Amino acid sequence: MKLSARNLLPGTVVEIVSGAVTSHVRIDVGGSIVTASITNESVEELGLTVGQKAYAVIKASDVMVGLDD
């Protein structure tokens, strides 16, 4: 696998919740959960299953800043 993204977080798929068009895939990355929203078709093409090793690949073009009121 070659990607331009530099943020590759290895983990384990802990949950897949499928909707009408997209699925939410939850990946445990060292005790933190990262959730990705991908198409159901992508879940099928990748053959994703709970317990499978996978990468959370993060490609961000913006970083936002927030403050508590």
UniProtKB/TrEMBL annotation:
Listed GO biological process terms: molybdate ion transport
Keywords for this protein: Molybdenum
InterPro entries: Mo/tungstate-bd_C_term_dom, Mop_domain, Transp-assoc_OB_typ1
Keyword Kinase found: no
Top-level lineage group: Bacteria
Record-annotated Mop domain positions: 2-67
PROSITE patterns named in the record: MOP
Residue stretches in coiled coil: none
Pfam families: TOBE (PF03459)
Keyword Metal-binding recorded: no
Signal peptide segment: none
Protein name per its UniProtKB record: Transporter
